[in-house]
Amino acid sequence: MSNIRMVVFDMAGTTVDEDNIVYKTLQKAINEAGFDISLNQVLAEGAGKEKLQAIKSILSVYADNHDMELANGIFKAFLIKLAKAYEINPVYPQPHAAELFEELKKRNILVVLNTGYDRATAQSLIEKLGWQEGTHFDGLITATDVSKNRPDPDMIELAMKRFNITAPSSVVKVGDSIIDIEEGRNAHCGLSIGITTGAHTPEQLASAHPDNVINDLMELLPLVN
């Protein structure tokens, strides 16, 4: 794939290794509200989504519950629990993330992070990693920066607008969930790539018909050269 100008990476599970803290915390917040949802169910239905939407989806699919007020209450409890969890738990870059970012920089390819997190959560993660915008990566787009979230293409389109990129074929999306792949396809990216380091299994990723599925971030380089 030639003429790539930007790669948009998901964060948790793709470029950030936080041991599924977010989804374990989401599971805890839901179950403390009176449900019995497994972590696999949380991952299957909630991975990659803006987190209030993830709660709504999980409850509607696995509990046949469509109570908006309840979902909002769980979401508020989740944010408090997640902030505490990130304070005490370690967070690491995914293997080879820093090396890949550096190699892309040498090729004049922009590195943008996007996420189903709100901006405050995403920023706290980046600070824990010691990453700096403009040094380690070029931009951050979060769920609270757009009106419509994954699988809608708004976050990728905002990134393109920010860096004056008009051709979606020059953009690559990489993520660890079905909804990441769908987001890339809906944005008409040149490549929409799944990675097996996070939420979804290779089989689940394949069900979204990605252009490629990779097992390590450095496997991206031959695809963009």
Strand content: 5-15%
Globally, the shape reads globular
- In the CATH hierarchy, the third-tier topology of the largest domain is known as Rossmann fold
How far apart the termini lie comes to: 6 Å
Mean pLDDT: 94
User: What are the secondary-structure elements, in order, as H or E?
Assistant: EEHHHHEHEHEHEHEHEH
Q: Major sheet: order of its strands?
A: 5-4-1-6-7-8
Number of separate strands:
8
Number of helices: 10
Enumerate the spans where pLDDT stays under 50 for 5 or more consecutive residues: none
Biggest sheet features: 6 strands, parallel
Estimated structural class: alpha/beta
Please describe what this structure looks like:
Keywords: Hydrolase. One of its GO terms (cellular component) is cytosol. This is Phosphonatase-like hydrolase. It is a single chain. This protein is α/β, with parallel strands linked by helices. The chain folds into two domains: 6-17 and 92-224, Rossmann fold (3-Layer(aba) Sandwich), CATH 3.40.50; 21-88. Helices cover 44% and strands 13% of the residues. The chain is built from ten helices and eight strands. The strands form two sheets. The chain has a six-stranded parallel sheet. A two-stranded antiparallel sheet has the order 2-3. α1 crosses α4 (68-88) and α3 packs across α4 (68-88). The model has no long low-confidence stretch (mean pLDDT 94).
